[in-house]
Specification:
Elements (H helix, E strand, L loop, with lengths): L1 H6 L7 E2 H8 L3 H13 L3 E5 L5 E5 L6 E6 L5 H16 L3 E4 L10 H10 L3 E6 L1 H5 L1 H16 L4 E6 L29 H21 L2
Helix pairs in contact: 4-8
């Protein structure tokens, strides 16, 4: 994507496959594999260049969706694992995930969190008993998230990390991930659970991008 931006900074000029592959220094197999992934994710579009050759262009008007991650620090390890599974979506330019570990030294953390939350397209609630018992997560971040969701300014997605009485919360009516709201920690293969979460987020991202 960076090389496409260099070759077509206006995001409108079509870039030929031969030229792009040469600039990247990739063989046909790698080039075609990555190209297929980007086309499938709608990160790029295919067009007809001169002499009928296929050309590529960065999707016009495409902008990564801002994803806000709300979580308890007791779930730091699980949050880190989830972010690893979301990394492919970031590389494809579909999302840009934000969490409080990105706050820089000297910044007023509460103001930075509030600003990031207000600008989010997707808000992930990493649900556990520690999340529910956290005054900041539950009383401040969750309330702001649900308000944005109600106004259709953002999509709130509960991610059930550990079993707890989340069914009796203010966000219980929202569809949760992984499928069937089976807590991530209860899956035999945790990578499988987080992959399904990432796929669910990818689908939501597609919906939001198509509606823009």
């Amino acid at each position: 994507m960076e090389k496409l931006s260099e070759l077509a900074p206006d995001h409108k000029t079509l870039v030929g496959n031969i030229n792009l592959r040469a600039k990247l220094g990739w063989d046909d197999s790698r080039y075609n594999r990555v190209k297929s992934e980007l086309l499938e994710s709608r990160a790029i579009i295919a067009g007809r260049g001169q002499r009928g050759s296929v050309a590529l262009s960065k999707t016009r008007g495409a902008k990564a969706l801002s994803v806000f991650v709300s979580y308890s620090h007791e779930d730091e390890d699980l949050k880190t694992e989830l972010l690893k599974h979301l990394a492919p979506l970031e590389r494809l330019g579909q999302i840009d995930a934000w969490h409080d570990r990105k706050i820089k030294a000297g910044e007023e953390w509460d103001k930075v969190i509030s600003k990031s939350l207000e600008g989010a397209d997707i808000i992930l609630l990493l649900v556990s008993i520690d999340f529910i018992n956290s005054k900041y997560c539950y009383d401040i971040e969750l309330e702001a998230a649900l308000e944005r969701h109600a106004k259709q300014l953002a999509r709130v997605v509960p991610i059930i990390l550990r079993n707890c009485l989340w069914q009796h919360t203010s966000f219980a009516k929202l569809p949760a991930l992984p499928p069937d709201a089976k807590a991530v920690c209860w899956w035999q293969d945790r990578d499988e659970a987080l992959t399904k979460v990432a796929e669910g987020i990818r689908q939501i991202g597609d919906e939001l991008l198509e509606s823009r």
